[in-house]
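Human: Here is a favour to ask of a fellow structure person. Comparing notes only helps if you start from a blank page. I am asking you to supply a protein in sequence and structure-token form. Write it directly below this note and I will take it from there.

Assistant:
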Amino acid sequence: MQILNALQWFNRVRLTGLIGFLILLLSLRYEWYHLPPESLKVLQITTFSFGRVFSGGVILVLGIGWIRWQGGALRFTVWLALGLTLLFPYGLMTWRPQQAFLALSYWHQLSQVDIQVETSFAEVQNHWKQFISLAQFQPLPTLATFDIPDTRFFQLSQWDHVLLDGFGYSNGFFAFIGQGWSLTITGLVIVLLAVYLRGNSRLLLLYQDLRQGLPIVVIVVGLLLIHMIGANLWERALEVAYARGDYAAVGQQSPWLMRIYPPFQGDPHGWRRYGDSLYYQGHPDVGLSAFCQGMAHYQGHRFAQAIPYLEQAWQAHPQLLVIREYLAAALINQGTAYFNAPTLPFSVHGNNYPNFSNSPLNPIAPNSQRQLNNRKSGGTSALLEQALALFPGHIQALYDLMLVKAVDQQYEASAAIATTILHEQQYFQTPNIGLMGQAHVHQTWADYHRGDLNGAWEAYRRSVNSDVWHQEPLTDE
């Protein structure tokens, strides 16, 4: 009889609510957002487990409310918790600029490497890599991706831009999203369903709540839009003032703009404009002035000349990830240019290659450009390693260094970098299969040259079939 009474207690409402609370409890196991901890430590970016604290608070409040509250109070609490959870991308990408910059930078790096993986697959798969060349790297243009390019912005067809770049629901955000956020949303939706199952006239209650809550949602979204659009209009006004030579206004207002709308802290053009305005006012910031000079050289593809200025700017402002990003890009691109450039043959006539047979463009010439990559790997490796020390886990630098070490026939070093790439990819929501496959290829060559043929076969299997990545290695019977 007691068992029957206990079973009767588990009605549809309680079972639905119990499932929702269990999912919310499960969300406490996972982070809402997980960037590589090594990078966070080196870049001195502080993080806070907001998601777990928020989920724990929601469970506590809803647990008490489920027992003591009835009607609208409980429904309002669940709706409020769900709304705040859905605003998490906006909060992170807008008000945590350092974490947002790091996430978007990694996503931008992976997007470029993915193109290189697809276009140079045959050359990378090749064992000796005599004919391979490295691609130039383009750093993240800006963190302030939400902008108003023209009047078409105010057309309804353009407002997906508001959701993706304004409210943070972009691919760069979702690249590092954790399971805790999605589980919290799922749990809250199920609890909300259970709350409506408790009462009578459920559809009428839902209609009334939506009718009363819609004006609140419109007001909140409207205020956020006013904030974003107003910040962009302010930025345009500063651009006009800079063009007119009103450097005092630019110098005074730029720091306020970056505080009120933090994504502009990740805008290199804004920092250059601010640095120039201080310089023209007669009280320059040494670091920002060096950054302006370095960027001028960088945009002219004079990477070797840009590096000293960017290093000076970084030493003056180590907290600015924009400077670190462009310094790492300058080091990578200088290494790429050094690796790809031909070594011109010596000629007693003063002409580097007086005829085609002596030209680096001739693929069978002794000094052919296509055969000189092996002689330039040392200097390129040093530049790429400097970039990695500056920006840990930089995907472009890791990928290029893995190739350069293989070109130099340092297969163990290349495999070690491949292992680092595989480790870094685990922090992405969806790891790049092509990049991981090429990392396994370089582990294959290391095992082969070590004489471990079984290990080489296992690594090769992982390079061509992602289904075996989580399988145990095969053993000889």
